[in-house]
Write a structure and sequence with these properties.
It contains 22 helices and 14 strands. The protein is mostly helical and 548 residues long.
Length: 548
């Protein structure tokens, strides 16, 4: 399906129509699949957000829609992610649900990585029906379909052969064959060692008994396949689940939806083998982070997760980053100084939506970010500019008394009553400063005045400081301090404080600001000077500038 301008509304309409055609009177099903093999990162989140936005749009139209999250927790552990002990390497080849929890608080490796994503989805308003593939396989839910696939193994092999790529003549995980070259689409987990280093050596279509060997030396069978731990290989498992869950829509990363990909093969197998239909689908592009790679990997570890993003971005902003882009568009999520720009863009859009000047597409994206069919997401009651909050958090080092004092000074016309009015945005700003601002770049206010530099002040510099310390108390507000700071070089030249600056004035302003930064924080730059002055207070400013 090609993405339209409002791809969410268009896809939701197609899903409703297709669902009714396929299964009249039944809610359509949108699907996501996540492997909890390691930290679930922001790239994986697109696998969830894309069908969520569609399913939620259907619900907003007053129709039911199911969004399933299939946890691929019965997949093998392929590798140990960075940051985890090498002792876990002994579990490579076992199901993720059978690998011990790395922290000792969860039932398994899989549950360890599910928990933080569940918490993030709840904060993002993403409602899903969870399906554990471990539970589905071990409960016998798929037994009939496994037997069907094994009996139709020659037909499946023929379909795979049609789309076999030329890049490798070696069989992959989806083409497991015995020593005679016979193909079997089922991979057992060894009854002895629990790993999938197994080779099926026979299957009786009549009795459904299977025999297999394992690299550990075990030889098993013939035994009924219904009692054997194991799963269908990926390119067969996926279309089997499409048919079983009656999936109407499931997007996938561009690598899965390209020609000769899993989707292409699955489209043949779901119809020819399992009697189902291929879901509506399209490919979505990758999500990167500012300064990072364009593609993330759960198994390699280290990539930012939804929980990391929610620590510095309010939930509606995270939703907006996904909702405002068409699926085929790549985008990045900022963790650097660009975070402030993202907040500025969101705040500007909020104002435009409120006054009716936003474009229709922007209004639609905003609505999908701000809430779901179940209602609006929580917001910050007093959404002060993020850059201001970050500067104040930096200057005060988390001192809540000082935080409140400064924020009240910043909002003199309608003072902030409590810090709770500025949360969660304030918490996001504090977390960003603590985690993503280099300690060397944080603001350290001088404890004592720089007597040596003060002694070397020029007459012009002394005059500028005198103007500041004498006039700043006249209107102790952010706008007034901003006007005064930029206006002092104008006043020294006999110009009105509101005079437009020319190149000479701009150079003088730059030199004036540099002087203040060096005298106040011993650096050439720092937080916006008006905010810094409000944070320090008049007495401390006078003391550090030698005017106390």
């Amino acid at each position: 399906m090609a993405a339209a301008e409002d791809w969410v509304a268009r896809t939701a309409g197609e899903v409703r129509a297709e669902g009714e055609r396929r299964h009249p009177g039944e809610a359509p099903t949108c699907a996501s699949g996540i492997s909890p093999s390691g930290p679930v990162h922001l790239g994986n989140l697109r696998e969830l957000m894309t069908p969520h936005l569609v399913a939620d749009e259907v619900r907003k139209q007053g129709a039911p829609c199911r969004h399933i999250l299939s946890w691929d927790d019965y997949d093998r552990l392929r590798r140990v992610p960075a940051g985890f002990g090498e002792s876990f390497a002994e579990h490579i080849g076992r199901p993720l649900s059978a690998v011990p929890d790395p922290c000792g608080r969860h039932l398994s490796w899989a549950e360890h990585f599910k928990e933080p994503l569940r918490e993030s989805l709840a904060r993002l308003g993403v409602r899903v029906t969870e399906i554990s593939q471990t539970q589905m396989y071990t409960s016998g839910a798929y037994t009939d379909r496994i037997i069907l696939a094994m009996r139709r193994r020659a037909d499946i092999s023929a379909v795979l052969a049609r789309y076999q790529t030329k890049r490798s003549a070696e069989p992959d995980d989806d083409e497991p064959r015995d020593a005679r070259g016979e193909y079997y689409p089922f991979k057992p987990y060894c009854a002895s060692c629990g790993k999938d280093d197994t080779t099926v050596t026979g299957f009786d279509d009549a009795t459904t008994e299977i025999t297999y060997t394992c690299g550990c030396g075990a030889r098993v069978g013939p035994v009924p396949i219904a009692g054997v731990a194991g799963k269908l290989v990926w390119k067969v498992d996926w279309p089997m689940r499409w048919a079983y869950e009656r999936v109407t829509f499931e997007p996938a990363g561009v690598d899965h939806s390209s020609p000769e990909s899993s989707f292409t093969v699955g489209g043949q197998l779901v119809k020819e083998i399992f009697g189902g239909e291929m879901p509506l689908h399209f490919g979505y592009a990758f999500v990167g982070t500012a300064g990072g790679s364009s593609k993330m990997s759960s198994s390699s570890g280290g990539a930012p997760t939804p929980a990391d993003a929610l620590e510095i971005l309010e939930a509606p902003l995270v939703r907006w980053l996904y909702a405002r882009r068409r699926p085929e568009q790549s985008f990045t999520i900022a963790f650097n100084d660009e975070v402030g720009r993202v907040y500025d863009e969101w705040d500007a859009l909020t104002r435009k939506v409120a006054d009716g000047t936003a474009e229709p597409a922007s209004v639609a994206a905003y609505g999908r970010a701000a809430g779901t069919a179940e209602g609006p997401l929580p917001v910050t009651p007093r959404p002060l500019p993020f850059r201001t909050l970050a500067s104040v958090a930096d200057i005060t080092a988390g001192d809540e008394t000082q935080l409140l004092r400064i924020l009240r000074d910043l909002t003199t016309e309608d003072p902030v009553g409590t810090l709770d009015e500025t949360r969660p945005r304030l918490d996001c700003a504090q977390a960003w400063v603590a985690r993503y601002v280099d300690p060397a770049e944080r603001t350290q206010v001088r404890h004592e005045p720089d007597q040596e530099r003060l002694a070397d002040l020029t007459d012009s510099e002394r005059s500028a400081i005198k103007l500041l310390t004498e006039r700043m108390g006249d209107d102790w507000s952010l706008p007034a301090l901003t006007t005064l700071l930029y206006g002092i070089p104008k006043l020294q030249r006999g110009l009105p404080i509101t005079a437009p600056p020319d190149d000479e004035l701009k150079a003088a302003q730059k030199a004036w600001f540099l002087l203040l930064y060096r005298l106040l924080i011993a650096k050439d730059k720092g937080p916006r000077l008006p905010t810094l002055l409000l944070a320090l207070g008049q007495d401390r400013i006078r003391g550090l500038l030698g005017s106390g």
